[in-house]
Write a structure and sequence with these properties.
Elements: H1 3-23, E1 26-31, H2 37-46, E2 58-59, E3 68-72, E4 75-76, H3 77-89, E5 95-99, H4 101-105, E6 115-117, E7 127-129, H5 136-151, H6 162-168
Parallel strand pairs: 1-2, 1-3, 3-5, 5-7
Antiparallel strand pairs: 4-6
The protein binds iron/sulfur cluster.
Length: 169
């Protein structure tokens, strides 16, 4: 196969891959210490009333089959390793959405003896959805942010966390 044809095939495959990814985002949900308020809102987002499945989004039981990790709550000391392990088990390319004020900054749990950090101290976060708890419309808006970036062939700017860098090293 000559070089031009090879490049053409690569471009076609890349477009098909992006199209497939955009239309079938599978998500895994991880509660790293939430009060369950944010988790209820995620469930509400999945009901027929808000119908997030119209974007091809489906909740998955296994991180090995998921594209997006939805994290709620501050990261407790007990949950830190489990969050990191769940993230590691996801195939590339993978994305993280941090849902609720607690996952972004610790929120009302900030300073508690059992709370270690916010989500982006442990895994790289692509989209932040603030609120206590964020409404389903806000969750949908965050998902659309991610889809918009993927449509443009980019990903939201996210920095590698020290924990993930240590694993990669
Ligand atoms: S942001 Fe609010 S609803 Fe969500 S886990 Fe924290 S306290 Fe609960």
């Amino acid at each position: 196969m000559n070089l031009k044809k090879e490049q053409l095939w690569k471009q076609v495959f890349s477009k098909v891959r992006t199209w497939a990814r955009l239309n079938s985002i599978w998500a895994v949900h991880f509660n790293s210490g939430s009060c369950n308020g944010c988790d209820i809102e995620i469930l509400a987002t999945l009901t027929p009333h808000y119908d997030v499945e119209r974007f091809g989004i489906k909740l998955q039981g296994s991180p090995r089959h998921a594209d997006v990790l939805l994290v709620t709550g501050p990261v407790t000391r007990q949950a830190r390793e489990r969050l990191l392990r769940t993230y590691q088990q996801m195939p590339e390319p993978k994305f993280v959405i941090s849902i609720g004020s607690c996952s972004i900054s610790g929120g009302v749990f900030d300073g508690c003896y059992n709370v270690g950090s916010s989500v982006d101290d442990v895994v790289p976060v692509d989209v932040y959805i603030p609120g206590c708890p964020p409404r389903p419309e806000a969750v949908i808006d965050g998902i659309i942010q991610l889809i918009t970036h993927l449509q443009g062939g980019t990903r939201p700017p996210a920095k590698l966390t020290q924990a993930v860098e240590e694993i990669a090293a």
